[in-house]
Amino acid sequence: MIVDLVYGTRPNIIKAATLYAQWRETREQWPFELRLIDTGQHWDDTLSADQCRALGLPTPAFNLQAGHRQSQNGNIAGSPHISQRSPFISTVAQAYGALLTTTSPTATIAIGDVNGSVGVARAAHQHHVPLFHLEAGLRGGIDAKAEEANRHELDQICDYLWAPDDVAAANLRGENIPQNRITITGNIMIDAQVRFASLVRPDDIAQRPNRLTVLLTLHRAENIDDPVRFKSIVRSITEIARTRPVIWPLHPRTKRALDQLDLPPTTGLTLLPPLPYPAFMVRLNAALIVITDSGGILEECAYLGKPAVIVRPHTERPHAMAHCGFEQCEPADMAKRLDQALRCPPTPFRPQGWDGKSAIRMLQDLSVRLQNLPA
What is the mean pLDDT of residues 99-105? Predict the structure, then answer.
């Protein structure tokens, strides 16, 4: 049996690499092979190829090159805006659908909430390929509208749902999804933290920030694509950098927006290209505090007991928010919220399922369900 494991963005590369590494180490236990499929949503090497190399993810069996296809249609490759959601999803669905007509797997695994995962899921559903959704049941309310729409659609059309925790599973049941489709697997990003810490290189350690550094990440369209909001964010960042050093690895979307502002040199602010996951985690571990709009990084901070400021009104990770007291803020309040977060640092959050064994639970569930598929 062949199971397609599909990825295409930096966070999903990390999750796919974690699951693939666990499968490869124990492959004699499983009645299936994992076939890697890259949607090509990120074809910037710093977000895609470099990440795969750093995490030991081999060359995929197929690359759908959706980013290049979208670029040829006049959109920004690898970073579709909310208004471009449907065309990009359709591009991926057509490409994966064409692949399925020639070489169809027994099942497909779609990850997270990105547009590429929705396109793949639509194609698999149309071709009657059983679907698994890794990271099912996350809900953020009105925040991040495109991602929220994707989460709902994926959880409706996927046959089997891997929820990271009880909260996500309850969300699914509240939407009338039968319990027999849901498995609580735990948080695979904690697996990644545990597994890939050993891949840190000596030069990564040498470049770690001092313990007073603020680590900043921003990538969401809601923060970057609104010029007024983004300018307010940058003003707050420069204010913070006057008193504390700030390290800012730039997502390509964020770099384009920042280039348009023509930001003058700012003392205390260091701009970096996107970092491979192990190198990023070195800086996360060493930083005094984190400012981010990433749900995944929020959970990494929770696991480490790292104070964080969330530049979003809501988050799809309420589990971590509720137990760690992270500060949520609007752009103008970033400096004030940062000071408040530093006064009340959280203790490490280690709930059930944050144990580094999520990937093995996913493989076990996949094996059982594949063997019970209708003939």
Answer: 96
